[in-house]
Design goal:
Its EC number is 6.3.4.4. The protein is an alpha/beta fold. It is built from 12 helices and 20 strands. The chain is about 30% helix and about 20% strand. Helix 3 crosses helix 4. The structure holds guanosine-5'-diphosphate, 6-O-phosphoryl inosine monophosphate and magnesium ion.
Length: about 425
């Protein structure tokens, strides 16, 4: 023990990768349990006095910690070409990737689902979700429809062929008759998937069993969510969400480790808010303040390069994240980005048609029409990137963190003050010492 779940509190890109990397050196296993290569985590590491940047999509960020076993759980959807591209890229930079384990029950993203993702978005026009176009939605839909392809199917060619045939029977009709696009050939799909089988074989495992045994031995397991609370398919701003469970509960279904074994939940909360793709966003800024956040915070997508929509901190969202995930600790990231503002607004509640909402509105329509009610806190001008204790922070930056902490209802245990691995203030220990 312990088992720690790490989630995003907002709409993604909160800095989960950096936080996982920070914990990576003290954990034995890092598990990705949901999503696929729609995620994009940037980790900045100091190596021989130089800053090195790593962009990870499919692999858990723990792969950068030499003693950590990275695990891709059953809840993940895997684009095999991306998996090997990413592994090769890391190997070329001297990262040891040989410990990676992949669940036999994880689903693969066949090439036809990338096509369907893109043509569906085009077809939806102005009603589009703004997906990453990686085939995530169609692959999770196949899983639920029971026409998905699993990793283990690559090791039984007869079964694989049957499953691809079954899936394409319908999909090719859809592609040709609705989307007016060329379908896929069964042989091509089977051949492409089989080409990865031999290289993948040593990584394939019953990862639920591996993790259960690791916890029995007293080892530490960190579950790293892709995406975030408001992109969760059940608890997010549906339909403007991803197609998996990105909240803490998803760690259990996505890994085969039960809720009774989870000890703590760390949520990563950016000091302001960003969102990529379509969907409601009450504190979004369309003015020069939004541009300030985008420029200062370098808010451009790691996966698609799209400019991220930017806005102020929304503590209604933060409070919701505390409740839905059972957050024990928050990490506030990118506090340094707010340096140099006269006033820092914090959304404390919404006004919907003259009615105050302190909690997330029940109806999505109300959320679309929510106007933020702000509290204006005083800003600070001092460079905070060298601060390493809470007391090092200027009084107004401390007051900002304490007010946010009060509003979100769980303690802020760490504060990011820069992208680098060591640019963090550790206020309280993040690893619980729990004996079961
Ligand atoms: P993830 O998807 O949640 O892992 O987050 P991303 O990697 O997509 O986006 C977070 C970005 O913020 C990355 O470029 C990080 O290097 C950067 N970052 C993380 N923490 C901090 C911080 O405290 N300050 C600053 N300035 N940048 C940070
Ligand atoms: P990380 O892990 C931010 C968004 C997409 C789109 C919606 C659905 O880096 O925080 P999808 O391709 O998943 O079907 O797209 O979800 N989205 C993300 N936004 N960060 C992410 O991951 C995201 N993964 C998906 O932009 O709006
Ligand atoms: Mg990201």
């Amino acid at each position: 023990m312990p088992a720690i779940v790490l989630v995003g509190a907002q709409w993604g890109d909160e800095g989960k990768g950096k936080a996982t990397d920070l914990l990576g050196s003290s954990v034995d296993y890092v598990v990705k349990f949901n999503g696929g290569n729609n995620a994009g985590h940037t980790v900045v590491i100091e190596k021989d006095g130089k800053r090195e940047k790593y962009a990870l999509h499919l692999l858990p960020s723990g792969i950068l910690s030499p003693n950590c076993v990275p695990v891709i759980g059953n809840g993940v959807v895997i684009d095999l070409s991306v998996l090997f591209e990413e592994l090769d890229g890391l190997e070329a930079r001297g990262v040891d990737t040989s410990k990676l384990l992949v669940s036999a029950n994880a689903h693969v993203i066949p090439s036809y689902n990338r096509t369907i993702d893109k043509v569906t978005e085009r077809f939806l026009g102005k009603r589009r979700i703004g997906t990453t176009g990686r085939g995530i939605g169609p692959t999770y839909a196949d899983k639920m429809n029971r026409v998905g392809i699993r990793i283990q199917d690559l090791y039984d060619e007869g079964i694989l062929r049957q499953k691809v045939e079954a899936a394409l029977e319908l999909k090719n009709q859809l592609l040709a008759k609705v989307y007016n696009t060329r379908g896929a050939e069964v042989d091509d799909v089977v051949e492409e998937l089989l080409a990865y089988a031999a290289r993948l074989a040593p990584m394939v495992a019953d990862t639920s069993l591996v993790l259960s045994q690791a916890l029995d031995r007293g080892e530490t397991v960190l579950f790293e969510a892709g995406q975030a609370t408001l992109l969760d398919v059940d608890h997010g701003t549906y339909p403007y969400v991803t197609s998996s469970n990105a909240v803490s509960a998803g760690a259990c279904t996505g890994s085969g480790v039960p809720p009774t074994r989870i000890d703590s939940v760390i949520a990563i909360l950016k000091a302001y808010t960003t969102r990529v793709g379509e969907g409601p966003f009450p504190t979004e800024l369309h003015d020069d303040k939004g541009e300030f956040l985008r420029k200062t915070g370098a808010e451009y997508g790691t996966t698609t390069g799209r400019p991220r929509r930017c806005g102020w901190m929304d503590t209604v969202v933060g409070r919701y994240a505390t409740r839905i995930n059972g957050v024990t600790d928050f990490v506030i990231t990118k506090l340094d980005v707010l340096t140099g503002l006269d006033k820092v607004p914090v959304c404390v509640a919404y006004d919907v048609g003259g009615v105050r909402h302190d909690e997330m509105p029940v109806n999505q329509t109300d959320f679309h029409h929510a106007t933020p009610i702000y509290e204006e806190l005083d800003g600070w001008w001092e460079d905070i990137t060298a601060c390493r204790t809470f007391e090092d922070l200027p009084p107004n930056a401390q007051a900002y963190v304490l007010r946010v902490e009060e509003l979100i209802g769980a303690r802020v245990s760490a504060i990011g003050v820069g992208p680098g691995r060591d640019e963090i203030i550790e206020r309280f220990p993040l690893k619980p010492a729990v004996a079961h």
